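Morning!

This is the sequence you dropped in the shared folder:
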Amino acid sequence: MWRTPFFFVTVFLLAVLSLVIAQSRGDYPTSSAVVTQKSWRPLFTVPATADHGRNMLANIDDPMAVDPQVSCPGYKAGNVQRNANGFTATLTLAGKACNVYGTDIQSLNLSIEHQAKDRLHVEIIPTVLDASNISQFILSPHLVDAPEVDHSGWHGSDLVIDWGNEPSFYFTVSRASTQDTLFSTKGSKLVFENQFLEFKSPLPENYNLYGLGEAIHGLRLGNNLTRTIYAADVGDPIDRYYEVDGSNGKLTPFSGNSPDRLKSYTSISHGVYLRNAHGQEVLLRPEGITWRTIGGSIDLYFYAGPSQVEVTKSFQLTATGLPAMQQYWTFGFHQCRWGYRNWSEVENVVLNYEKFGIPLEAIWIDIDYMELYRDFTVDHVAFPADVGRSFLQRLHDGGRYLVPIIDSAIYSPNPENASDAYDVYTRGEAQGVFMTNPDGSLYVGAVWPGYTVFPDWLSKNAAQWWVDSITAWHKEIPFDGIWIDMNEVSSFCIGSCGSKNLTLNPVHPPFVLPGEPGNIPYDYPEGFSVTNATEAASASAASSSQAAAATSPAAASSTTVSYYRPEVTLGARDTNYPPYVINNVQDGHDLASHAVSPNATHADGTQEYDVHNLFGHLILNATYHGLTSVFPEKRPFIIGRSTFVGSGKWAGHWGGDNFSKWAYMFFSIPQALSFSLFGIPMFGVDTCGFSGNADEELCNRWMQLSAFFTFYRNHNVIGTIPQEAYVWASVAKAAKDAMYIRFQLLPYIYTLMYQAHTTGSTVMRALAWEFPDDPSLASADRQFLLGASIMVTPVLSQGATTVDGVFPGAGDGTVWYDWYTGALVEATAGQNMTIDAPLGHIPIYIRGGSVLPLQEPAMTTTQARKNPWGILAALGSDGKAIGSLYVDDGESVVPDTMLWVEASASNSTLSASAQGQFRDTNVLANITILGVLPEVTKVSLNGVDLPNDWAYDGSSKALEIKGLDKAMAGGAWSQDWVLTWG
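The structure's back. Tokens below.
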């Protein structure tokens, strides 16, 4: 959903109303001025100023900010106690407390533990008996799992730790096999205050660092970037952290060079994970990395690797948990938009996809379907129950699915009007499941329905209340999955703005929605002025007029910036205005701007300040259990916006509110690759862009690119032009062409997901992960791999008809084949090649050495799973290839039976062997083998010659065998078989 605060300039007032909104948290606004109408509900809109944060300057940019490395004394280690797996010590402040951005904690406990052969744990927490730590929040395992401990066999670990006290306490983690320093606080000071922690480490020159959460940025982060980690509801800004998805991303693999790097290059990767849920900044600079948090503890895990593959697998196996296995249908194509106004419009979209022959798996509905935007309701005027039941029956009968949105805030009804009663709220309030103010009253913010309360996932009843709500609602609208939005968690006003105003419950958000007067979306992608000059000129003129009308003279002439620098109160915490101001993307860097305020309070007394970044994670967990209640035997399908470490166990993710711009299509690739690192392989973006108007060329290219992401959805904002795949003829054809390939590859993609689910491997992969010893690939994120075998090289710029691409490993024996022709690519090692890519064509390549299971496409996955099988074997330079296939019922949490097929080729022989009891009766229709040398004169299956059903192309060196359905009528995998040629 579009949630961007910079559209708040103009407010669409339904009535003129004087209301003073208190800016301080805990002060509740009141008003006696009410404009009434015939209905009970007043015409009222929360003013846009209600969401304006305090003017601040983040310390990272503040020229007057105190440098804690200069002012603070650091610590000294003492009372060192060695044990079988490491040692413990007490850290004592090494001098006078600096109290720069909080109260210095005098005494800390240090624990160093070899938890496994490839993992080292460094933990620093306040000493329990130290009164200065009275309000310190330590993240508990029941909120975020702590990596499992397995002390067996850690001796001989490649990770070595050293420490010292001069000039103050430091620790150094190094690799025994290479003597490389991986992380060291030597030469810097540890700063540990009740609202500020800082530690830092130098890094090698031109280091390669990845991860650190979701942002619109290249995959390789570079050495001049500040990454803020704080859950924020905002449209995707380039190079700014915007959602908490990547507190996940404190997994940070590094790649290093071998000592003799002028003669050779060896990639050696390790991972660093900081388990801390507080707001954070990570400063990447040429000299190294600095970590700053506004609370919590230092809970560091070092993963030895030494490859990205090993780091990622170990991280998922021990920290995040293995990602959820998805139902087969979820890999089909999904269509959504904010603005489908009734069931008829929704069904017409489905019918149009059928009419134009474009596969469609699921239709999604945005907040339009709700009654007054209230969760777990349906507007039965626009979405009548009988019409809905009839449509959904037809949808399900056709093998298609429905996924509705659920937002994260709950409407708080007018207490003076019985007709406004809202059962979801009433049950929740009775069970004490909502956040409160510090004085115990309900915390009431404002979101889409008006004044809202927010689930307290730390309360004992919240999870079950949410499960019950989902279960009851499914009886009204038989959905198949759930889309969780606004779960940063977002609020459209600062503080508990509705606590004493519930009789004024607003009927409109405090900003102009797209499509309303004053916010008509006129923008188009870059290059639209070239391809559509007349339309672009008209749109530009209208946009300028709208902008001029929205800007007041006072706002236009104002250039004064006032800075607010919070002060430290010794022994206390100011959670609303912490002394260190992280570079939050919202207005004034205020943590409460467009979010629930930090001093909102949970049932156990914890403040939102300490767990804000976990709201999205915890609502996804509750939703997972809600779906298991509805579908006890089926895998829950959930797509969420804000995630954390471990969210992949329950849900997939989409990349937030992007824009219909070429840059956002480009950045979708590193976004997806980052989520592969974070253990959330089910990832996609709003194809063709969410905000702004797409055009034909952009949507043509984007529909083809997203066809090779795991989660594939088209979605755009209300008020913009339609962008369904059938809107433009060329897009319809391009989408069908790409979907045809996607459907053929679905068994391969499903197998990759199963491997990720069981081993922690990745589905979408960066070239550097498969070819780690090629330094030129360190920043490569314009191309990507699906598994090890399929490489995608999309066009990412307007007007281009060619694209440059590399073919990794070309100089080291790796061969690549063109998907469309089967021809061997004549590639040069380490060089870009110019590839023809006219509009409507996306270059796809197969890596030699791969055996791919294929299945004939259809309009839905249900139909496709009934179609014949095919095999594509692309021989490596050594004439060999391997592959595998996983088959089950496509939906069960724990399938009763499954099938695992291993296929291999060598010495002019291709064989397949299956294990498992799952019965798949689909026949094997054809086999294609690429790279066959020399010319073929004879083909046999299980020793029986196939005289007529094969053909060999001497120019492409491809062997194609058809008509196998007769020879293997019992099913492709019903018996082991061997195909030979010669």
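Headline: The first strand starts at residue 75 and ends at 83.

More detail when I'm at my desk.
O.
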